[in-house]
Amino acid sequence: MNIPDFDEKVDALLPRPGRLSEERPEFVSMDLESFANGTLTNCQIYVESDRGRHVKYSDPSTPFDRHARERLTENGHKVVFVKREDSHNLNRYFEDNLNRVLDDPKSTEAEKAEVLYATSVHIMQDLMADPTIPATVRSSRIISEKSIYHITSNPNALAMIMDLASIDYYTYTHSVNVMTYSVALASRLGYPQGETLVDLGQSALLHDVGKSYIDWKITNKSGPLTQDEFELMKQHPDFGYHALASTKEVPDDTLYAVRHHHEKLDGKGYPHGLAGSQIDMNVRVITCADIYDALTTRRVYRPAMKSYPALQLMKEKVGVELDERVYMEFVKMLGEL
Fold first, then answer.
1. Does a structural domain hold residue 233?
2. How would residue 3 be classed by pLDDT, with cut points 50, 70 and 90?
3. What whole-number distance in Å separates Cα of residue 172 and Cα of residue 303?
4. Is 151 inside a domain boundary?
């Protein structure tokens, strides 16, 4: 089967970010644990008042220290905010902070996992706001590289990171979870260290960015989708593909996986009805991680499933949606946590 090769301009294929999705907020939030003690964020920090307004807390030249964290926690603040226009400075801070923590021999494995997860979630929040910004897309590859190093060099990393995962489903936390599962699973399947594994990790992290072009009232709908709504939802892999392709920052293998992560082995997936050998191993790995995380996180329309019932349900999809070898290795992996 030939995959359609769209020649139209990206602007004609994609709605503009923020037009179909929820309006982009003026402020973005960060968990307090995302900041290292004594570091400069190079951003004006805000907190949310009792009236829901954002008020200034500290200026860019004020180090974020342990006392600041304690005072904020005592006053009931779990997150702080920066203006979205400062998010590029914040991204640089998080990347530098991540490198500092991961390379510091005094950092515990739990601290490394915490900062890695928080940084990954922040990058995904920025990507979901607009997946066509090249610098943010480049950050997704850095996150993939750092995650691979951490997960493959520490036997307890997967368990530690997943302990941090939210039980509630958000597209950005779901994407980080899927990347984490996918990287750990691919390593077990024999993926060599290097660009192939980095492509896989980046694919998993970016797989749902096309949902940023879907009205949030549809992606978060508590009841079943109408046929028209489902047809629109089925376009998110193509939306993600074209948005990322426009940046010229994403390898072809990553673009392929983003575009085809909803294809099924039996040919009944979307958007192009690929089947069997047309579906590569990256997609098979991501599909397994994607389904498991979707089942085991709480959605607006159903509670989270426990691990064993989720795996039992997934077993029924082997040969239809799931590759048998990938599924069996995934079960073994979870059994060792």
1. yes
2. very low
3. 19
4. yes
Ramachandran sector of residue 302 (left: φ over 0; alpha: ψ -120 to 50; beta: rest): beta
Give the integer Cα–Cα distance in Å for 194 and 161.
22
How far are the Cα atoms of 137, 222, 255, 292 from residue 282, in angstroms, in the given order? 19, 31, 11, 16
Query: Does residue 169 lie within any of the structural domains?
Result: yes
**Two structure tokens written together for 68:** 């600041």
127 touches 209 (CB < 8 A): yes
Query: Where residue 274 sits, what CATH number does that domain have?
Result: 1.10.3210.10
- What is the residue type of 253? D
Kindly report, residue by residue over 78-99, the tens digit of the pLDDT: 888 888 777 777 777 777 888 8
The count of structural domains within the chain is 1
**180 is a domain residue:** yes
Q: Hey, what amino acid is at 203?
A: S
Q: Are 172 and 124 in contact (CB under 8 A)?
A: yes
Q: How far does the chain reach from its first CA to its final CA, in angstroms?
A: 40
CA distance 210 to 29: 22
Domain residues for the domain of 209 are 10-24+130-335
* pTM of the model as a whole: 0.83
Spatial contact of 213 and 236, defined as CB atoms under 8 Å apart: yes
Name the one residue in this structure whose structure tokens are 């997943």: 162
